[in-house]
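Marked as duplicate of an earlier ticket. Keeping the data here for the record.
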Amino acid sequence: MSEQILLQGKILGTEDFLLAGPAEGRSVRSAGEDLLAGKSQWITLLCEVLPRALLAELGLPRILLGSSGGGQFLVVLPGGVRQAVETFLSAAASQIFDISSKRVRLVWAVTDNLGDWAVIRKRINEELQGKSDAPLRQAGAAAFQPFVALPGNDSDLYFARELGAKVREASQIGWSPENPGKVVPGEGKYTWSLTSNLSPDGIMLARHAAPSDDGKQAAPVQTLGRRAQGRSTWGVLRGDVDNFGLRLRRVHSIEEHVPLSVLYKQFFAGELEVLCSLPEFWRKVSIIYSGGDDFAVYGAWDTLIALAREVQRLFHRFTEENLKDYPGAEGKTISMAIALAPETYFPLATVYEEAGRNLDLAKAAGKDCIYLLGRILEWRHLNDAADLKDTVTRLIHDFRMSRQFLYQLRSFYRRDAFSDGTDIQRTWRFQRRFNRILSGTRDREFQKLRTHLISEMVGRKSAEVKLRPAGLVALEWARLVTEV
């Protein structure tokens, strides 16, 4: 294979596609968990199946597959197959465009594998950017045709019924040239096994779903909400690696690029699947997707907080072990966000969208942060909030404090409490107000908790009071935990 070319494919429009509502007449079930699960599985599996199917159709070995997943793939090919590649990908792109109601597009770039990696990457990125900026060029005349969902070929049925729950139970996934834009559980001209761990011949896929009460299907969001401690509600957790693209751009060769991108994908797929299978998580959370540098999970609201803390801890350890030779902080921190459903029967896609907006806010405010209960905290401050929440709930449960005192504590956080010193209270004045709220017993343990609560809310070394943001998160957290 004297002449080599590099093919990079990319899937665009996934966020709009996942947020799109169901067709008229669909049930609440297919409009919620099954539909969103099927759509996210389709996007995830397309990036894995298409490059493998291309190699199989061309009669080429799997070793030529560089990386796949996370919305894109990279393949090394012999130079004589350019036309066959174009034909294959054009057919797949056309069906992908149709069954996604013209929301998802497959674009690709092909270049000679010659020169420095920085030059090769620049050529690929320029071609991909050109196709991304001119979507109608690839769609052609089909872009101007109104989309009509045929009664016997409804795409919602494909995502919710043919994928969805079936992919969670399937042992393999298949592809056929008759439907180049589809993946089918269990059958096809070519098939690949679905695994939860690294396998040379299989596709690694995180697909855990909390079981329903009868164990026969995935639990709906209403059931997950009832399994939460305190308030019966559910939410969505989304996470994204900070500056992941910049980390990839700083590598010097394709030999570095491929293992690094595969490493991140394996972390999210493998660790999420293992975590969600642990006793404290398996009945309370379900995975929406895991990508190359991000993930999304829905479940009981309190369990999502615990899961977020555990994923952050594992990711920190992962980067310390695997990226210690890479300078800079890019790709070594992760930001997350949680959105809670305002009502039990709220649409999952809407809460997923809200979690995405919260994640954007967290990443705009800084790196290595989490958006939780209306505030953005650094991860180290989340631990402070958890400790303070435990103190408040002990005061309620062990010493029978009224839940009203939570609202009294919240009153300390006035509108301008976080301004630059314009509304800072003197410590003695704060102590006097605090004593009125927490008074009536001289129990030693109670006094200890009271002192700890004051120090955690205002800090230990300040002569003036400026309330800490983690305190407000802790109070809201305690309110939800203690709500019946």
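See parent ticket for discussion. The CA atoms of residues 175 and 308 lie 35 Å apart.
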